[in-house]
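By convention, the token line describes the chain's fold. To illustrate:
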Amino acid sequence: MGTGKRGLMATAVAVVCAGTVLAAPGTAFANPTPSPTPSAGQALAPAKDLEAVRKKLDKLYRAAARATDEYNAADEKADKQSTQVVELAKKIVKGQEKLRKLKDRAGAAAAAQYRGGGLPPEAHLVLSDDPQDFLDGAGRAREGHHATKGLLGELTRTQEDLEQYAKDASAQLKKLEAGRKAKAAAQKKIEKQIAQAEKLESALQKEEQERLAELEKEAANKAQTAWLDSGILEEINGKASEQGKKAVKYATAQIGKPYQWGAEGPRTYDCSGLTSQAWMSAGRGIPRTSQEQWKQLRHIDVQDMRPGDLIIYFADASHVAMYIGDGAIVHAPRPGRTVTIAGAGSMPILGVVRPDAGTGADTGSN
């Protein structure tokens, strides 16, 4: 293999069979008998062996997609928690300043009372030359007493607020740290899956890599043909909303840009990074991950979908694409691929969601 004179497909299949690339239980692979080192003119590997590699790569990249969703979810939570910690810190600073001012006011009130000698009202009446002055002073004293009570109450409430802010900040910092650990763990999963897939692909000759890409297209076309043969496209005639048109325009403008896990543009995207940014450009914020898009957005029957709607794929909602009409989608497929147009039925559809649900009737055109 190191001399470049033998085909590398046998090595790739051996890696799969040995289970070093997460071989799934029950998966059957070719098991050729040992043979002499082939010459440079050796024929390429049988299609069935390449098909086994294609399926293994599909599993690896789907696992990476699930881990990417975990990473994006942890990243989104970390951002929110960081913002909450900052807001709590601002509240603590403001509360401390308020407490300082209240203490200054309380100190001034105590000093004023001290200067008054703390004499009882009867003594002030005896010492006063004018009873009316005494009555006016007594009224002011009562007002001052009530004000002091109010001041002390405000001091107590402010101190309690500060204690609560501190507790909340501590709790958020713990969540933030846990989120960072979850994010790091998801990143390791992604890197592991992608590294294994890249190792498997790199063991192929150039011609075999090209054939592998053809097999991927053939599998997608087969699934798309079966989907179209069901007659579903005849039922899909929804028109894009104004926001939907903007989202489609943004998404299709990204065609040709590389896939990168965790990316939200403008140079690279992962699948949900593309859809979330497309809808943000249309003025509608939606969840960051495909799984949360599936959970939180309004579900639409496939036959009712319109351009701009999002199609969620696979049972675990690990992939998302944007429907653009005429049975087609735009999506960021996987590592090593670019944003592209594909058939809406080229992957197993879990369901359809509508980001701009409730914004009016289906008006406009595809």
Remarks:
- The CA atoms of residues 92 and 164 lie 9 Å apart.
- The first strand starts at residue 298 and ends at 300.
